Amino acid sequence: MGIGRKVVAAKAIKGRRGRKKARRAEMMEAQAEAAEAQETQEKVEEKPEEKPEEKKEEEKEE
């Protein structure tokens, strides 16, 4: 996805509309990266919560 946006931005540098499209493409790409980083951070936060529960269940079984 990112490659396509870069190509669009590279082609669209001519004139005011082109700059506007390039800027918008950069903003969308930055927003997508931020969302992806947030998702990975949420996954990392969820994992430690699951592990103690699993350990408690194992101890109960023993």
From TrEMBL:
Entry superkingdom: Archaea
Protein name stated in the entry: Uncharacterized protein
Annotated segments matching region Disordered: 1-62
Source organism (scientific name): Thermococcus siculi
Compositional bias of kind Basic residues: 13-23
Extent of Low complexity compositional bias: 28-38
Ranges annotated as biased composition (Basic and acidic residues): 40-62
